[in-house]
Write a structure and sequence with these properties.
heterodimer, A: alpha+beta, three-stranded antiparallel sheet, 2 helices, elongated, B: alpha/beta, two-stranded antiparallel ribbon, globular, nucleotide-binding (chain B)
């Protein structure tokens, strides 16, 4: 069993109202060191068997077709050890 | 004139859309998300709601419903398709329309009677209106902000593919006040406000929404 993590983030130019709300709350709580917050999504995929290049290509494909929307989001695939 | 209305898990306005089709002179046909074909309809409405609970992204899972495969093929072949609200989100996720819908810039669900300007009266769904006609229809959404990159927005403007624009108030932070867009061919239209809720006297904002449904009924009649 292998574990793959897919992190999805809104592209920098897309407004992130959730991140903004979190940032606003941090300000109110006195955490003034934070200058910006962006909120994303993390998917943890359990993959049958050992990872190989073919499976990694499949994971990239599913990350691009379903887990993220390339119009507004970027994704990063990491194979967890 | 058969106009299909697709029900997904979480569709909300499918019955209202069917009623609007009937009031405009069409015959509504209920379509099921799990079906593999479109039952011989002449056009399709994807109604508002919260397909699959809006999990992942609005419309992202619905895009992969069995009925969408037939719908995407038919739309690319020229069949008129109107996506309202969640339907608009599904059409963007399906790449039948450009851009994407994101959470409202003020982070609140908004529900109001909204003035729109119909800027393209040449699509299958807007021919019953005059260019630049202003109409009022209800709007209700939490993730209704239309976004696209600058180049896409510029080409939408230049090609006259902004179908409707918000007037007076921008309710959700949509870029360039865009409320609805069409594809290059003009048969696929996505709209964030809800014309199907403005088709009957004594209910809501008036009758301004009828034109969307009357347009496609007329367009189909002209074709046959």
């Amino acid at each position: 069993m292998a574990r793959v993590v897919v992190d999805v983030m809104l592209k920098p130019e897309i407004l992130d109202p959730q991140g903004k709300a979190v940032h606003g709350a941090l300000d109110r709580l006195g955490f003034e060191l934070v200058t910006d917050v962006r909120q994303g999504k993390r998917f943890e995929l359990e993959v049958d068997g050992e990872m190989d290049d073919e499976k990694l290509a499949d994971v990239n494909k599913l990350a691009e077709t379903l887990l993220s929307n390339p119009v507004i989001e970027t994704y990063a695939v990491t194979v967890a050890s | 004139m058969k106009i299909g209305v697709v029900t997904f898990p979480g569709s909300l306005d499918d019955v209202d859309a069917s009623r609007a089709v009937r009031l405009a002179g069409g015959e509504p046909v209920a379509l099921w998300h799990g079906d593999n074909d479109l039952a011989g309809v002449d056009a399709v409405v994807l109604p508002g709601g919260f397909s699959y609970g809006d999990y992942l992204r609005c419309g992202a899972i619905a895009r992969f419903a069995p009925v969408m495969e037939a719908l995407v093929d038919a739309a690319r072949g020229g069949m008129p398709v109107l996506g309202i609200c969640n339907g608009f989100q599904i059409l963007c996720e399906s790449h039948l329309l450009p851009g994407a819908l994101v959470r409202n810039d003020h982070q609140r669900f908004v529900c109001r009677d909204q003035m729109l300007r119909i800027e393209n009266a040449d699509t299958a769904w807007t021919s019953a209106y005059e260019t630049d006609q202003e109409i009022v229809v209800p709007l209700k959404n939490g993730e209704g902000g239309f976004v696209a990159d600058e180049a896409t927005l510029d080409s939408l403007e230049q090609e006259g593919r902004v179908v409707a624009r918000y007037v007076g108030v921008n309710p959700n932070g949509s870029l360039r006040d865009i409320a609805g867009v069409t594809n290059e061919r003009g048969n696929v239209v996505g709209l964030m406000p809800h014309p199907e809720h403005a088709v009957e006297a004594l209910f809501g904002a008036g009758l301004d929404g009828r034109g969307f449904f009357a347009s496609v009924v007329q367009a189909m009649a002209d074709r046959s």
